[in-house]
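Reply to dn_fold:

You asked what the input looked like. This is it:
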Amino acid sequence: MLVWLIVLPVLVAVLGAVRLLRRRRTGHAFRWLLASNLALLAGACAVLATALAGPAEASAQAAASAGGVNGSALIGAAIAVAGASIGAAIAVAYTGAAALAALSERPEMFGRAMVIVGLAEGIAVYGLVVAILLIGKA
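and this is what came back:
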């Protein structure tokens, strides 16, 4: 059952991509892309719900007796790293573009521009720290 929950969204995305390649109309392509993204989101939510609700009680007792980590803490750590990395990527994209534009006009602003881009990259480091704290508490 769990295998189908993982394979089904991928299958929908592949079939949607094949259909997109056969039809080259922009409106239909956007609709199929949106539908495949929603199917992937629904599949990911189903896998997450299955992972959290299914054998959580039995695995929690086994993990407590074996000294393992809690699965919820690992999922939380993964969400923290993923969210922080995506946020940092968006921030670096905008600040990097602005820094390059400023440097093309005034090259002496290199130090200031790199500090701003470095601050944007710090968001990913914060997510990593949160993930390490979550794994340490598990």
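The chain has a mean pLDDT of 74.
Hope that clears it up.
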